Fold this sequence. Notes:
Blueprint: H1 13-30, H2 34-52, H3 63-69, H4 74-86, H5 89-92, H6 94-104, H7 119-122, H8 127-136, H9 139-180
Helix pairs in contact: 2-4, 2-9, 6-9
Amino acid sequence: xxxxxxxxxxxxxxxxxxxxxxxxxxxxxxxxxxxxxxxxxxxxxxxxxxxxxxxxxxxxxxxxxxxxxxxxxxxxxxxxxxxxxxxxxxxxxxxxxxxxxxxxxxxxxxxxxxxxxxxxxxxxxxxxxxxxxxxxxxxxxxxxxxxxxxxxxxxxxxxxxxxxxxxxxxxxxxxxxxxxxxxxxx
Length: 186
């Protein structure tokens, strides 16, 4: 009796790099709540992009924890964030966000006058005062963009969910069609 050892197929570095996202993509497609997970992640990423400019990018400190707490897909959240950046929606919606924030928070905000900050000011002990003065001047916009971010996040959830389900059904139909086709014998 002879024992034959089969060697495991090895892949190059670049093949492994390509296979890893492909594997996670298929795993996500086959998971029972894949559509909800992807939609949730995309919606969170898209909604948080509305706040990036007006929080001096501090929203990225809570980006990953929020996606994980909501049980969303982190890659989908990153894609939603990138699409929000490319669309320039936060820039175009600035006047609407300011008006919405001023309407919802009608109290006059006492703004601390601030001077232009330099890099050396960033390393001084006055960092929190600097951030406070920057954020206080943008309170109306922050309130308005938060509301618009939630609205656009909810809308994008349903759009991505619909597109995901449509794509999944199309793939299932295509797979069934391939299995039904008889083999042609020559």
